[in-house]
Amino acid sequence: MENASVPYILEVSWGCPSEKYPIHGVFQFDQAYALREAGERVVFLALDLRSIRRWRKWGVNRATYRNIPVYEYNFPCGPMPPAIKYRIQDHGFKKAIRAIVRDHGQPALIHIHTCQQAISETSYCAEHDIPYFITEHITPLDETPAIEERKRDALRGAARVIAVSDALGWDLKCTYGVDSITIPNIVDLSEFRYDPEQRENHSGVYTDSANRRTTRFISAASVNYGKGFDILIRAYAELIKTNPDTHLTVMGDGPEMSTICDLTGELGISVSGPEETTDTPGTITFTGSYHRRDFAEALARSDIFVLPSRSETFGLVYAEALAAGVPVIATRCGGPEDFIDDSNGILVPVDDVQALAEAMRSMADKKKSFDRASISESCKGRFAPDVIARRIIDVLMEYNGSRGKTNEEV
């Protein structure tokens, strides 16, 4: 146990990564880890109310993950009326904070990820005179007037509100009337980096019988409606009519997986098994769920990343691809507009199959023209853990001169 007399930051999230669920709460934990690496003492709390299908031990649990003390309040329940859901979350925070304070003392400040989590902490912060900060990752949701009022109060009472993109900040302003600053998510550069030697090792691989090099597209995300995989499959079907020397790898799993596989068959696209050692032209490989390292290794073998999301508040997978020096095709859906331009990719409209197919054709033709080293360096300069951690610390430490002021007054 760490010295309880040393001030610390309590990071509050909806989940923490684990071996079983490696990407759950990963954006938030990346920030906590970066703060710790920058010299801050950090304790991490996850209030996890996911479905009972994602089994984990009920109640308050303690662990250490990457040398950070982690507390989880698990209540596997799934969808329920907002009033009940947040009553459970309120109860979970009260139980968890008692254990945290017993082990570590009171936090110096609390950094909360999303206003949905923050509504359970505001009373405690007011009672103990603890400043809190909110980083918002999620587009505002309408969860009944009473809950929305709690969110509005939480955001307005924060010492500072951070949004992960300019578009999300504008949504917060329009919906809740609060100002925010933009600090993007972190890219794990220990996994995602440009390695020219590794790319060179793959440059002669994946050719057809005529020795033509296959253009390798890759996509990765949770397979749900919001990620637009149906649009991607339809666009790829259009692409291979004129560009058969291409291959698409889709990494991820989710509720739309069976629908996407059915659509692939209906469009007459052949599927390559993930165990195959070559990317057969004109086919799609579905890998299923993945860890970050799997994605990083696949990017090293890929030419272009593509994901036609219907909405993104940031779009971490795009940034991870850029960190690996891989140009991207994204949609104008919120977050990607902050960092994707002609130097590192193409932006297309949401839900436009033909525009996406044309972008894929264009990128296949000019894939060698991108300066991959420059793409990677630019990404590191914007999203490296030490860069983002320093920005967050600067914001969190502002409270020294603004104690007692609300978001509206600062």
Salient structural properties:
Rossmann fold, alpha/beta, disordered C terminus, 8-stranded mixed beta sheet, about 40% helix, single chain, 7-stranded parallel beta sheet
Q: How much of the polypeptide forms β-strand, as a percent range?
A: 15-25%
- Termini Cα gap: 36 Å
Number of strands: 15
Main beta sheet strand tally, sense and closure: 8 strands, mixed
Summing up helix and strand content along with how strands pair, one would put the structural category as: alpha/beta
Strand order of the largest sheet: 3-4-2-1-5-6-7-8
Briefly note the CATH topology name of the largest domain: Rossmann fold
**What shape does the CA trace take?**
globular
Mean residue pLDDT:
89
Oligomer: single chain
**Which CATH-level-2 architecture of the largest domain?**
3-Layer(aba) Sandwich
What is the CA-based Rg, rounded?
22 Å
Q: CATH superfamily membership of the largest domain, which one?
A: Glycogen Phosphorylase B
Task: Report the CATH C-level class of the largest domain.
Answer: Alpha Beta
The number of domains: 2
Outline the fold blueprint:
Elements: E1 9-13, H1 26-37, E2 42-48, E3 59-65, E4 68-74, H2 82-104, E5 109-113, H3 115-118, H4 122-128, E6 132-136, H5 145-157, E7 160-163, H6 166-176, E8 181-182, H7 196-202, E9 215-220, H8 229-242, E10 246-251, H9 257-266, E11 270-272, E12 283-288, H10 292-300, E13 304-306, H11 316-323, E14 328-331, E15 345-348, H12 353-366, H13 372-383, H14 385-396
Parallel strand pairs: 1-2, 1-5, 2-4, 5-6, 6-7, 7-8, 9-10, 9-13, 10-12, 11-12, 13-14, 14-15
Antiparallel strand pairs: 3-4
Helix pairs in contact: 1-14, 8-9, 8-12
